Amino acid sequence: MKKDYYEILGIDKGADAAAIKKAYRKKAIEFHPDKNPGDKEAEEKFKEAAEAYEVLSDADKKARYDQYGHAAFEGGGGFGGGGHMNMDDIFSQFGDIFGSAFGGGGFGGFGGGGGGQRRVKGTSLRIKVKLTLEDIANGVEKKIKVKRKVQADGVTYKTCPTCNGTGQVMRVANTVFGRMQTASPCNSCQGSGQVMDHKPAGADNDGMIVSDETVSIKIPAGVADGMQLKVSGKGNEAPGKNSIPGDLLVVIEELEHDTLQREGDNLHYDLYISFAEAALGGSKEIDSVTGRVRIKLEEGIQSGKILRLKGKGLPSLNSYGNGDLLVHINVWTPKKLNKEQKEFFEQMLEDQNFKPSPTKNDKSFFEKVKEMFS
């Protein structure tokens, strides 16, 4: 079972952005690979801290984590979460966090803070996936065709002549404090230490071509409209032998259902019945996300009554079980009556059995709304 992100960083849920950043920097420096060479346990804790920081430092991801926990980032690498971050991802995204603690945050010859050669990461792609309530109820695997940039076959790279493969250039400047030497990423190779040596036919100036690829995405049950799924490494590739592909960001779009309305994990269904059905009772078939279900109507059921079908709603992302299906009873009043029908109801006007006499068990509209949301 994955550890709580707040526990990993040693902070509480009320921590602000500055406290989160400070806690991550402390953990990252403590378990940094340069400080713990060959220590696999320290490396894992370093990755855990980076994953926790990636989520908690982003207001949107943090809000989803606070609501759904780790389940908000399940499937295809996580809903914007760290997933399986590698060292290059970490230094590429958070290298500046380390400041000068490790000479710019480098690791294994690559860094994200300006020190030494670095790996270039490709840009991310964003697509929308439309899901029905049935898809959301059961979870689904979607195969999506994606157009992404990849390195062309036959492209080759050579050491950058400007920086001699170091990924940085040194500059000396005269200041009031004397001559000072500074290092900055090489503009010729963007810090990768490599430039293209051979460009195949059909490739662009970076040696890239556009390719169609079918990506399989596993979407867990219980997702909601607007949630974002990250599929690591399925975005655009970047130039260079040691580059890192970007990510594919999949935004969930929930399609409107014909008869069901969603409210969190609960579903609502409006059931219209006739006077006769309300008076005599009986049974009716209604829609649910798992198929048609039959419900029983008691004799004398009142309009506005809510029947709660336990567990017939949507599954929770937090694995807390399923929501409920709430059936709202609406007694349909006919708008036109024939002569015989009018005579019948005229006779019933003074009938005591037809006169409203609510009891304490017949709750008011406001009580029903309060009960529904509790």
UniProtKB/TrEMBL annotation:
Which Gene3D superfamilies does the UniProt entry name for this protein?
DnaJ domain (1.10.287.110), Heat shock protein DnaJ, cysteine-rich domain (2.10.230.10), Urease metallochaperone UreE, N-terminal domain (2.60.260.20)
Q: Function of this protein?
A: Participates actively in the response to hyperosmotic and heat shock by preventing the aggregation of stress-denatured proteins and by disaggregating proteins, also in an autonomous, DnaK-independent fashion. Unfolded proteins bind initially to DnaJ; upon interaction with the DnaJ-bound protein, DnaK hydrolyzes its bound ATP, resulting in the formation of a stable complex. GrpE releases ADP from DnaK; ATP binding to DnaK triggers the release of the substrate protein, thus completing the reaction cycle.
Q: What residues does Zn(2+) bind to?
A: 160, 163, 186, 189
- For the keyword Mitochondrion, the answer is no
**Cofactor comment text:** Binds 2 Zn(2+) ions per monomer.
Q: Any idea where this protein resides?
A: Cytoplasm
Family, as annotated: Belongs to the DnaJ family.
The cofactor named in the record is: Zn(2+)
- Subunit comment for this entry? Homodimer.
Q: Which GO terms describe its molecular function?
A: ATP binding; heat shock protein binding; unfolded protein binding; zinc ion binding
Task: Give the record's keywords alphabetically.
Answer: Chaperone, Cytoplasm, DNA replication, Metal-binding, Repeat, Stress response, Zinc, Zinc-finger
Predominant localisation class: cytoplasm
UniProt domain comment: The J domain is necessary and sufficient to stimulate DnaK ATPase activity. Zinc center 1 plays an important role in the autonomous, DnaK-independent chaperone activity of DnaJ. Zinc center 2 is essential for interaction with DnaK and for DnaJ activity.
Q: Domain (J): give its ranges.
A: 4-69
Q: What is this protein called?
A: Chaperone protein DnaJ
Give the source lineage, highest ranks first.
Bacteria, Pseudomonadati, Bacteroidota, Flavobacteriia, Flavobacteriales
One GO-annotated biological process of the protein:
response to heat
Q: Which CDD domains does its entry note?
A: DnaJ (cd06257), DnaJ_C (cd10747), DnaJ_zf (cd10719)
